[in-house]
Amino acid sequence: MQPTPLISYDRVHKTFAGPAGAVAAVDDVSLDIAEGEFLAIVGSSGSGKTTLLRLANRLIEPDGGSIRIAGEDISRLEPVALRRRIGTVFQNGALFPHMTVAANIGITPRLLGTAPKAVAARVDELLDLVQLDRAAHRDRLPDALSGGQRQRVGVARALAAGPRIVLMDEPFGALDPLTRDTLGSDYRALHAQLGLTTVMITHDITEALLLADRIAVMRSGHLVEAGTPAALAASREPYVAELMTTPRRQAARLAALLPESGAA
Ligand SMILES: Nc1ncnc2c1ncn2[C@@H]1O[C@H](COP(=O)(O)OP(=O)(O)OP(=O)(O)O)[C@@H](O)[C@H]1O
Description:
By secondary structure, the chain is of the alpha/beta class.
């Protein structure tokens, strides 16, 4: 018997009223995400990625279908309690600008009533986890951080209450390619170390291929295909095949330019 998926979308619909009529942002999407899985959601702008993600923590309510987390229908769960079980990382970190790094990271434990000493210890533990030097970063304001450091703080804040699930909306999109690559692989290591289940939106199919166990491809509110990088590479679905063109071309160019690994 298959284990119960940690997150399960079952025939989910969400329509928004737009100036030119109703927009089916998410249209009959069914998708299971297993515990421990790293799932990337890709698709062009407006394809429904953010809506799909926000449905999982009830920032958006569906018009139809259901979403279960660990077998529980989330419409029966209290939204604030649900969101405490799920860490969220946004583009640019979305840190509170007037609060120090430590205050930003410690906000959820503090709201949950954790004693100040325990919050401070947790903040230090999280700074270690995201590889930011405690003394150098604890008391800084977000403005005094680089984009990469801000995202590390965003990840630390998302992990502060010990969630099993982390939702990420274009977390590394605004970073330079080198920082983006480092942060992506550092986060992937954290995901494995902490046994997290991660759902990450990215516009970058190459990033999705390199980081994720499975990739869900969205188009006009539909889930076109969900599969492993190898399955997507072999897909005959026209839109998926088109998406794979760029990484394929880049891989061929790089293979021609770079010496074979291990040849030196
Ligand atoms: N609150 C809203 N009110 C009206 N329409 C909305 C709302 N949120 C999203 N939409 C519409 O739903 C569709 C899907 O939007 P969504 O933000 O989920 O796409 P996306 O794939 O995340 O896009 P992007 O990559 O640009 O962030 C779009 O047509 C968008 O305009």
